[in-house]
Design goal:
Ribosomal Protein S5, domain 2; 11 strands; 11 helices; alpha/beta
Length: 297
């Protein structure tokens, strides 16, 4: 039986839809083609163990899986969920016929638990653009994907919940997030404020100019002069993010795996304050871009 499930490959900060074709037929061998890397190839062992935890068995027939387009390299373990669901559907363990309406991503533990993955926000944006009904992701990634309006986002804890969802055994409510409410309530919300600083008029003027123009700063002085105290308050005077910039920033953090399960949208402009002991090589090759460098003598 030939079935299709859908996943996404993240290239840069954008996503490309990946069609996973699974065919279970006579034979005993397993084939996985479509330019998968080692982590994707190792999914067979994770999926087989996860299926056993649900009381299912690996199909006792030949399993052929093609991941298209074949010219895009498929990397990471986030394809475990769509691969597993494709195998179950091709083996006639899934009865619902709308599995092709969803994009699925998630790494499987050996007990079937779903682990969070990177790049969920660009994946959800691409799914909406291509008119998919929804996305199914690990529970920790659900709020991140739910900032995309017009898309049903389901956060699942394990493979068993996904199977029950498609078999109609259990009903799950899509995760809802009010994007504008989050943006308006969290934007420029800090524990400290630049107005707390008394004195230091020349330094404050320099910081205001640097923040307005997006320049770097190096602060040199003896310990206790107020360098760290001032640096902590620089983000409070940086121009706030617009909604478009917030979404773009969130996409970058999503791909980098820097978004936790409680964060849906990055509402603060990124800021770094490396210590004076940072190496010259890291500073000079551009890997660190900062508003502030503190040096103590």
């Amino acid at each position: 039986m030939l079935v299709r499930t859908f996943a996404s490959a993240v290239t840069g900060i954008d996503a490309v839809t990946v069609t996973i074709e699974v065919n279970v037929s006579r034979g005993i061998r397993f084939f996985l083609v479509g330019l998968p890397d080692v982590a994707v190839k190792e999914s067979q062992q994770r999926i087989e163990s996860a299926l056993r935890s649900l009381g299912h068995k690996w199909p006792g027939q030949q399993v052929l899986i093609n991941m298209a387009p074949a010219d895009i390299r498929k990397e990471g373990s986030s394809y475990d969920l769509p691969l597993a669901m494709g195998i179950l559907t091709a083996d006639e363990k899934i009865v619902k016929d709308d599995i092709e309406s969803y994009i699925m991503m998630g790494e499987l533990s050996l007990d079937g638990t779903l682990k969070p993955v990177r790049g969920v926000l660009p994946i959800a944006l691409q799914a909406r653009e291509e008119k998919f009904r929804g996305v199914i992701v690990p529970l920790e990634n659900a709020r991140e994907a739910a900032v995309v309006n017009g898309l049903d986002v389901y956060g699942m804890k394990n493979l068993g919940e996904v199977v029950d969802f498609f078999n109609g055994i259990r009903k799950f409510e899509p995760v809802k997030v009010d994007l504008m409410e989050i943006f308006n309530s969290e934007a420029n919300k800090y524990d400290v404020d630049f107005s707390d600083v008394r004195g230091q008029e020349n330094v404050k003027r320099a910081l205001e100019v640097a923040a307005a123009g997006g320049h770097n700063i190096i602060m040199i002085g003896p310990p206790g002069a107020g360098k760290t105290m001032l640096a902590k308050r620089i983000p409070t005077i940086i121009p706030p993010l617009t909604l478009e910039e917030a979404l773009e920033t969130t996409k970058i953090h999503s791909v980098a795996g820097k978004i936790d399960g409680h964060t849906a949208l990055m509402t603060r402009r990124p800021f770094r304050s490396p210590h004076h002991t940072i190496s010259d090589e890291i500073v000079s090759d551009g890997r660190v871009r900062s508003f502030f460098f503190a040096n103590s003598f």
